[in-house]
């Protein structure tokens, strides 16, 4: 009698998990409480899976030997509680995929910068000719790739939600970029719970594995002083380079690695701004760790294109540069964006606020921003927060209006920055939709 695997959620990770589970001999059932997207429904139908949408049929789920759940389903959901009471093992797709591959796994987490760092490492590994897959929050489902491809390396972006469902999984190289308050609603509003979740990236690591971390991040630094990790710990920061790790001297990034030194001017790195210097250091150390040659690491950092909707320098119109940073959905991401601005900036901000404290941005706004364009259904909190700074402020309720207003407020040599610091669901489907609408509105100027 085959073991029964139930997959909850039928998007990329769920369909991938179903394909791998069947390959490993499980009896598979897929259930999604919402509507399954056409392309995934076609996969499930073509491959003749037993699946349902718009409901969770408990008698088909509670008899599972193993449940692989989408990271979006909270542990507090009634169905999950029932499964736990029955003692059913509930894991994430990445945990499941990790059980069936011997590939080396480079895993990246952090509150900000993880997509950029993940894609930069993937770009670097590809350029160096390594046989590498991209998985986790970006790329294709890891389980799907484990089932149907044969990679030697996986570069995996992991959110705290994914890490929460991981138990036996082990990263060969784990990277922790930073920890700032985010998603606290999922962690009983306790910062330590969120911190513990992020540190799960180091679980099961041994002395043969690497844990690469930002020594400048106050939360990470404090936590490192309290923990005894099994892995070899490699720090990076903007200060003097450690004996092993990365740092900066006179605008040069220096990576000390096993008697071999890598140097590169930070002015030659495609991704500018101090936050991107951190991302590049983490990527550079990973490259050194898998013996990529210095010139390949240098080339990758110089020609990397960056991530769509993340400080994406989009177009110049009459000497005004438009930058799409729609992916900035929290204060910290926007802080990084404003910090990297070198021209006078018209800032487009707003959406659904996740409990933002705008005072953290006051100093940067005073020094960098000439005008603020609010874009949201309710802009009152932003107007209230910044009214004392004496900066021009405009209220808008559509992207077209926001872009046009910003264009009139800016002049030749200025920058217009969309960096909302908020979720997008009041006016847009998601941050990608918001970014695409921004780019469309700029094209129409």
TrEMBL record:
<dbReference type="GO" id="GO:0008360">
    <property type="term" value="P:regulation of cell shape"/>
</dbReference>
<dbReference type="GO" id="GO:0009252">
    <property type="term" value="P:peptidoglycan biosynthetic process"/>
</dbReference>
<dbReference type="GO" id="GO:0071555">
    <property type="term" value="P:cell wall organization"/>
</dbReference>
<keyword id="KW-0133">Cell shape</keyword>
<dbReference type="InterPro" id="IPR005762">
    <property type="entry name" value="MurD"/>
</dbReference>
<keyword id="KW-0132">Cell division</keyword>
<dbReference type="Pfam" id="PF21377">
    <property type="entry name" value="MurD_N"/>
</dbReference>
<dbReference type="Pfam" id="PF08245">
    <property type="entry name" value="Mur_ligase_M"/>
</dbReference>
<comment type="pathway">
    <text>Cell wall biogenesis; peptidoglycan biosynthesis.</text>
</comment>
<protein>
    <recommendedName>
        <fullName>UDP-N-acetylmuramoylalanine--D-glutamate ligase</fullName>
        <ecNumber>6.3.2.9</ecNumber>
    </recommendedName>
</protein>
<feature type="binding site">
    <location>
        <begin position="110"/>
        <end position="116"/>
    </location>
    <ligand>
        <name>ATP</name>
    </ligand>
</feature>
<keyword id="KW-0436">Ligase</keyword>
<keyword id="KW-0573">Peptidoglycan synthesis</keyword>
<dbReference type="GO" id="GO:0051301">
    <property type="term" value="P:cell division"/>
</dbReference>
<feature type="domain" description="Mur ligase central">
    <location>
        <begin position="108"/>
        <end position="284"/>
    </location>
</feature>
<dbReference type="GO" id="GO:0005737">
    <property type="term" value="C:cytoplasm"/>
</dbReference>
<feature type="domain" description="Mur ligase C-terminal">
    <location>
        <begin position="309"/>
        <end position="422"/>
    </location>
</feature>
<keyword id="KW-0131">Cell cycle</keyword>
<comment type="similarity">
    <text>Belongs to the MurCDEF family.</text>
</comment>
<keyword id="KW-0067">ATP-binding</keyword>
<keyword id="KW-0963">Cytoplasm</keyword>
<dbReference type="InterPro" id="IPR004101">
    <property type="entry name" value="Mur_ligase_C"/>
</dbReference>
<dbReference type="InterPro" id="IPR036615">
    <property type="entry name" value="Mur_ligase_C_dom_sf"/>
</dbReference>
<dbReference type="InterPro" id="IPR013221">
    <property type="entry name" value="Mur_ligase_cen"/>
</dbReference>
<dbReference type="GO" id="GO:0008764">
    <property type="term" value="F:UDP-N-acetylmuramoylalanine-D-glutamate ligase activity"/>
</dbReference>
<dbReference type="GO" id="GO:0005524">
    <property type="term" value="F:ATP binding"/>
</dbReference>
<comment type="function">
    <text>Cell wall formation. Catalyzes the addition of glutamate to the nucleotide precursor UDP-N-acetylmuramoyl-L-alanine (UMA).</text>
</comment>
<dbReference type="Pfam" id="PF02875">
    <property type="entry name" value="Mur_ligase_C"/>
</dbReference>
<keyword id="KW-0547">Nucleotide-binding</keyword>
<dbReference type="InterPro" id="IPR036565">
    <property type="entry name" value="Mur-like_cat_sf"/>
</dbReference>
<keyword id="KW-0961">Cell wall biogenesis/degradation</keyword>
